[in-house]
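Quick one: Ferric reductase-like transmembrane domain-containing protein from Parasphingorhabdus flavimaris, structure tokens please.
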Amino acid sequence: MKILRKLNSLPVFWILLSIPAILMVRGYLAGDIIAMDMLHPTGEFSARFMIVAMIITPLSVIFGNRQWIAWMMKRRRSFGLAAFGYGMLHLIFYIIDMEALEPILAEFWAPGIWTGWAALLVFVPLAVTSNNLSMRRLKQSWKHLQRLVYIAALLTLAHWLLIHDGVGGALAHFIPLLLLELLRVIIIYGRRNNGLTQRESL
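--- reply ---
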């Protein structure tokens, strides 16, 4: 049982989240992979972990109190921080690939580029405040701040669509999130209407 608890601990979970990054950095340092080839996978992992962190709330509304939901809830901030971490790795490989400041500035205002910078900028306060101390100090404001993730998601989607020729990959990742969020809204709206109807009938 102790072994199972250790395997299910947050440190082990963080190691699992880090494995793709470790493999990518190792491949780059070994000379097997160039920086340009790391842009797409690091960006994808950042988007994936962000989406996973975001779908936990609608899943909890849809399925209610389940053990696997509680397990994901405890790791939601880890998913969010992993998204930020892979976003930073994406930025690092981008800077390495561009080699100098001049070409970075030259393409900065291209729609596919500034949306990526903006998404990462929105992620910064979310990552910085993703700790218990910030939750206690910010109180209700913490939840409002964390809702900026929806803006980050829209910017990430725009960045992905504008950078790549095909839309299939971006839509395959973001459509499930959109559907779950819509279902969440429908369920909450239905519950409120039922509650209002019940009160009116009393």
